Amino acid sequence: EVLSLTRNPVLESQPRDLVQIVKDVIEDCSDDANVKSVSVRLHAYRDIPFVTLDNQGISDALLNLIGNAIDAASGKPHGMVKVTIRPHLQKKSVEIIVTDNGPGIPESIKETIYQPFFSSKSGQSSGLGLPMAKKVVLDHHGEIEFESAPGRTTFRVTLPVHPENGIAEEDPRLRSSQKIFTPLS
Question: Which domains does the chain have, with CATH numbers?
Answer without folding.
Answer: 12-183 (3.30.565.10)
